[in-house]
Amino acid sequence: MFKKASACVLLAVASVSHAFPDRVITIQVPFSPGTTTDVNAREFAQVLSGIVKQPVVVDNKVGAEGQIGAMAVLNAAADGHTVMFTSNSLTVLDPLMKKSQPYDALKDFVPICAFASTSNVMNVTGSSQFKTTADVVSAAKAQPGKITFGYASAAQRLAGELFQQAAGVKLTAVPYRSSVTALTEVAGGQVDLIFIDHVSAMSYYQGGKIRPLTVAGAQRYKAIADVPAASEAGVPGYNIHPWFGFYASAKTPPAILAQMREAFGRAVSSPATAGNMDKRDLQVLPLCGDAQAKHLAEDVKLTRKVLSKAGIEPQ
C-alpha cells in the first residue's frame, strides 16, 4: 500500500515537473505600450519563445499605477503560464510608499529572474525656456512649487523627489494614469518635467517634443551622449537606476518555479538579450531565484533609507 502511494506521489511530481510550459505564456506588463518595460518584454518574449518552444505573448493591463496588471497575474492560474514583468516600482517602491494595496507585493509574488537596469532622465518640454539643469534649479528656487513634474509610477515620483532633495528645490508632482499620458502632457507643455528612462522618451526626443537635460547618476548614456550626468550638472544626489524583473504568483508550485527560472535564466543570459540591451544602453541583470530575492531585499533596504531621508511618507 505504501509503495503504491509513494509511486503515485512520484508520478504526480513527475507530471507536474514536465507540465511547464504546455501552452501559451502570457507576460503581463502593467505599464503602457511603448514604455521601456513594454519594449523589453516584447523582445524578450521572442527570445523565450525560441527556448521553450511555445508562443509567448505580452499583455498590457494599465491603470492604478500598475496594480491592475499585477492583480491580473494573481487572479490567473498559478501554473507558470502567466507572469508579471515590471520595474522595481511595483515590487520595491509601492510597498514602501503606499499605505494600502490589494496585495502584498513582497509576499504574494515570488522572483523568477531579474532582467536589466536602466536610466532615469530629467526631461523638459521641447519648447521649454529651460536649457540646462541650472536653469531649472534657478527658476525653482525663485518660485518654489511653480514648476511641475508628471509621474505615472512610484519610481518616477521617487526620481522627482530625489532631484528636489539633491537640488534643494520644491516642485509640484502631478500624477497620471500612464507614462504615455504623462509624456504627452509634458510634450504639450501642460506640465514642465518628467523623470523617466530614455528608452520610453526616445520617440519624443526624435520628434523634438521633449528634451533630456540630465541623466541620473555619474555616467552618461551613449544613446543620449550629449546629455550630462547628474554629477556633472551639479546634482549628484539625483542618482536612481530602475531595474526590471519577472515575477510569478507565490502560489506557483516549486517544481514549476524551478523550470521557469531555468528557462527564463537562459533567455536573460542569451546573446540575443545582450544585443537588445546593448543597443539601448541597458545593463543585463542575470539574477534568478534566491539571487534576485537578495537583490530585491537590498533594494528595499536602500530605498527605505532614501525615502526616510527625503521625508516621503506612505500615502
Automatic annotation (TrEMBL):
<comment type="similarity">
    <text>Belongs to the UPF0065 (bug) family.</text>
</comment>
<dbReference type="InterPro" id="IPR005064">
    <property type="entry name" value="BUG"/>
</dbReference>
<dbReference type="Pfam" id="PF03401">
    <property type="entry name" value="TctC"/>
</dbReference>
<keyword id="KW-0732">Signal</keyword>
<dbReference type="InterPro" id="IPR042100">
    <property type="entry name" value="Bug_dom1"/>
</dbReference>
<protein>
    <recommendedName>
        <fullName>Extra-cytoplasmic solute receptor</fullName>
    </recommendedName>
</protein>
<feature type="signal peptide">
    <location>
        <begin position="1"/>
        <end position="19"/>
    </location>
</feature>
